[in-house]
Amino acid sequence: MPFIGKNPTAGFATIVKDDFTADGTTTVFTLSKQVATVTDIAVYVGNVRQEPTDAYTVNGTTLTMSAAPATGVNFYVLHIAGTIESSVVPPAGSIGTAKLVNNAVTTAKIADNAVTSDKISDTLTIPTQLITPSVAGSADTDTSISFPGSNIVQVNNGGSAKYKFHNLNGTSLFEVQASSTGGAGAGGAFLKFKGSNGTPVDIASIDGSMTNGSIGSESGILSFFTMNSGTNSEKVRIFSDGSMAVPSGISFGNGISANASNLLDDYEEGTWTPTFELTGGSLSGSSLSGTYVKIGNQVTLTLYASAGTSSSASFGGIAGFPFVAENTNQRGSGLLRESAVSGHAYEWIGNPNAATSVIRRYDNGYSISSSSVFVGSLTYFTS
Q1: By the 8 A CB rule, do 186 and 209 touch?
Q2: Is 150 within the bounds of a domain?
Q3: What is the model's pTM?
């Protein structure tokens, strides 16, 4: 006979019966079959059918009674869902991997932030070049991270390689660490360039560190380190005001070679305190002062001296040089001029291997007149 609707199941269906032993306290029982809804089964207590939902609930194979059936009462369940046209909704947590079609789960079906680190493998296999980042919704095709060779990580920007991180004998050739020379500020970066002779070696490094972290007053320094005879130490420092310290000196006009004859290893400016050395008589109320400039091992002195009151005083020399002269016959020399009274001129000659000098007046006189004022300069070499 023709009909409307779903084809009926051919043949007969067998009703499955579950018998349970009631003890007056147990309310949860396990069914022999999965059950989708409370109306898929008929529950009998003492041969009286129970009201679905009010008297019992189901979840998969779990039957929960609202009240424990009394001890010894006839208690059973009939699975009647198979006797009519119905569908079973799988209970939560009952679908296994084998029931899913390969590639059936798409990105659209995965909630945001649903994948945690627990579900990500420690080993990630990726193609030669990563997907380029997105900036303000647009792909930045000029920026990427790539792996152009074994043990190489490359950062690309502007369409070309900008940074490469290599590995040599198990040692990274480029490292970024916390600053090693930082002061009271908020840290900095220490870039280390490494090599290997079988053992990791720091061959050079650049250290940028903050020395003042106060907001609005931030300042920092930049230091350069190189390895020399097994010791990695600071060789150059640029201070926050732009001044630079180069303890070993700067080589001029000799390419990239540190030739000793081209090396400027010292520059200094300062003051010194001259003293008169007399060969006779005495002076009272004298006042002397001087300045110096030292470039390498060459020292240039200036002198201003007020003799005060002379009692038959005669010059022997001037002492108090800021640096001892080198021990050589190439003695430093200069000119000393008496700017008051007679206005004599003097030759000012440094003594070798000493911080003193001798003075000779060009007319061979050595007397000092009261109230005389002397000005002059002398250049010599120190060891």
Answers
A1: no
A2: yes
A3: 0.51
